[in-house]
């Protein structure tokens, strides 16, 4: 039977890096589910720069292909915002469910990271992690990353964007960002990448070796 690991948490918590490393450690498949919403966000922006008609976004979500996820430009700040906006549209979320559920069942195992993996997509996951960090720490990480390509960016703008996205992701009525009751919390505020990975692998290892 396949082994599914659900990793959720807010933006820039380190969950993506941890998910990738955990998948590599155990030889599992990995899906960054944020890329699905980012790809839809990018397509909506290209079509209708001024607004987000829900039915257009839903149609684009239904037509998404794996090639759309390989787009290197999906991390841009305007796409982060658009992703968070399209993610609040119930029809968009519904269109992306079956792809994620199928991905999660792959042998020998799969790691999915996002906002609703432990609560909605894979409620029966073998291990659930909720990875978080203080907003100022997350903003600092994102600021350092984005400053490499945009020197006009200020820390305050990045912090405001992150807080804005947190609020929208937590407040939406369909599948909001939330820690599943049975998820293990890892706060990476005072951990570097390596220590965060070690903590996550240790939690998974306990369950995996006892199976
Ligand atoms: O993980 P990320 O920052 O790349 O995600 C981008 C946006 O997509 C995020 O603001 C909310 C949305 N998202 C979601 O609603 N559900 C997921 N499972 C993953 C991402």
Beta fraction of the residues?
Answer: 5-15%
Following the backbone from N to C, one meets helices and strands in this order, namely EHEHHHHHEHEHHEH
Q: Could you say which overall geometry the principal axes of the C-alpha atoms support?
A: globular
Strand order of the largest sheet: 2-3-1-4-5
SS-based class: alpha/beta
- Residue windows where pLDDT falls under 50 for at least 5 positions: none
CA distance, first residue to last residue: 10 Å
Question: Major sheet: size, sense and barrel closure?
Answer: 5 strands, parallel
- Count of DSSP-assigned helices: 10
How helix-rich are the residues, as a percent range?
40-55%
Rounded to the nearest angstrom, the radius of gyration is: 17 Å
Bound molecules: 2'-deoxycytidine-5'-monophosphate
Average pLDDT reading: 96
Instruction: Tell me the total number of β-strands.
Output: 5
Describe the SSE topology.
Layout: E1 3-8, H1 15-26, E2 29-32, H2 34-47, H3 54-62, H4 66-69, H5 77-86, H6 90-104, E3 109-114, H7 117-121, E4 127-132, H8 135-146, H9 155-171, E5 184-187, H10 193-209
Parallel strand pairs: 1-3, 1-4, 2-3, 4-5
Helix pairs in contact: 1-10, 2-3, 2-5, 3-6, 5-9, 8-9
Describe the structure.
The protein has 211 residues and is α/β, with parallel strands linked by helices. Helix content is 55%, strand content 12%. The protein is built from 10 helices and 5 strands. It has helices at 15-26, 34-47, 54-62, 66-69, 77-86, 90-104, 117-121, 135-146, 155-171, 193-209; strands at residues 3-8, 29-32, 109-114, 127-132, 184-187. α1 crosses α10 and α3 packs parallel to α6 (90-104). It binds 2'-deoxycytidine-5'-monophosphate. Residues 11, 33-34, 37-38, 80, 83-84, 87, 114-117, 165, 169 line the site of 2'-deoxycytidine-5'-monophosphate.
């Amino acid at each position: 039977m396949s082994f599914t690991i659900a990793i959720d948490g807010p933006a820039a918590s380190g969950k993506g890096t941890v998910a990738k490393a955990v998948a590599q450690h155990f030889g599992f498949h990995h899906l960054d589910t944020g890329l699905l919403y980012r790809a839809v966000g990018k397509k909506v922006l290209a079509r209708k720069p001024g607004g987000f008609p829900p039915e257009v976004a839903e149609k684009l979500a239904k037509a998404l292909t794996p090639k759309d996820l390989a787009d290197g430009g999906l991390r841009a700040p305007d796409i982060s915002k658009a992703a968070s906006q399209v993610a609040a549209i119930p029809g968009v979320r519904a269109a992306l469910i079956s792809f994620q559920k199928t991905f999660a069942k792959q042998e020998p195992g799969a790691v999915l990271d996002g906002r609703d993996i432990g609560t909605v997509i894979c409620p029966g996951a073998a291990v659930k992690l909720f990875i978080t960090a203080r907003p100022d720490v997350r903003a600092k990480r994102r600021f350092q990353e984005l400053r490499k390509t945009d020197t006009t960016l200020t820390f305050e703008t990045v912090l405001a964007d992150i807080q804005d996205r947190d609020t929208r992701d937590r407040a939406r009525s369909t599948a909001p960002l939330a820690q599943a009751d049975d998820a293990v919390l890892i706060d990476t505020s005072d951990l570097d990448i390596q220590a965060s990975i070690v903590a996550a692998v240790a939690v998974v290892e306990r369950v995996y070796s006892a199976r």
